[in-house]
Amino acid sequence: MKEVDVLKGYAAEAERLIPQFEALSSEEVLGAVLDLLPSGPGSVLEIGAGTGRDAAWLAEGGHRVVAVEPVGELREAGRKLHESAAIEWLDDRLPSLDRVGAKNERYDLVLAVAVWQHLLPEHHSTAALNLAALVAANGRLILSIRHGPGAPGRPCFPANPDDFIAAAEGGGLDLVARRSAESIQPGNRAAGVTWTWLCLERRRIA
Fold it and tell me: How far apart are alpha carbons 177 and 140 in whole angstroms?
């Protein structure tokens, strides 16, 4: 199975997944890293924004958000559910993020929740460097990595947090925090799904 098949899996199940995603609160989903988010309004790039739940929450907090979502069904649902002048939607995906890169912008926060495990391992290094390059001076990259089985149509590929850290450090970021958390969804917990949350910051030049 390839990454494009994962996207097709999300598209095929979008009607069921949209209310499921919206039923979760951003405070729950981001609970492990709430204290690591920017304290003041800034620019945010969210990779794999889904229905825009977290993008809308961040926009309500005063942030300007670029919400990147490659699955058209989820992206269009997000536009309708969370209409906001503070959210710009973009059709793009890892590992290349070509359209994001073409904007030639850097962000105070780059956020990638429940995305990394859907990338093939051979794309991890390129994707990590591309993410790191989008972090502004003094900005942060926050990313979650899933451990455990994925859904039949949305498989999870092997993902090693240490490998991601090493690649991101090569892109000029330093590790701020590494935390482990159980899944907040009962079905995933029952299946043994856990998460590693990483927070890295743009290296400061002395």
Answer: 11
